[in-house]
Predict the 3D structure of the following.
Amino acid sequence: MSGASSYNLNCQKCQVQYTLDDVAFDKSCQNKHTFLFVCPECGDYKATAMANIPQEKWSEFVPADQLDDLLQKHAEAMKSH
Ligand SMILES: [Zn+2]
């Protein structure tokens, strides 16, 4: 077991990578923050818990100019419960 969490950001239909559409921060105490992805080809939506994707991978789909802001909001969201 490598311990690496498996996640797949490719649309099975189109074989292209989903792009980040939105980020939803859970205001409850469960910290179920979610990435919302959309397929640029077919428009299919996919939601993945932020905890399922290692933070060092976020730069692969979060635009560089939004990454710092996202990390900050995520850190704040994790604190506020
Ligand atoms: Zn697709």
About this structure: The first strand starts at residue 19 and ends at 24. The chain has a mean pLDDT of 89. Strands lie at 19-24, 34-38, 45-49. The CA atoms of residues 20 and 37 lie 4 Å apart.
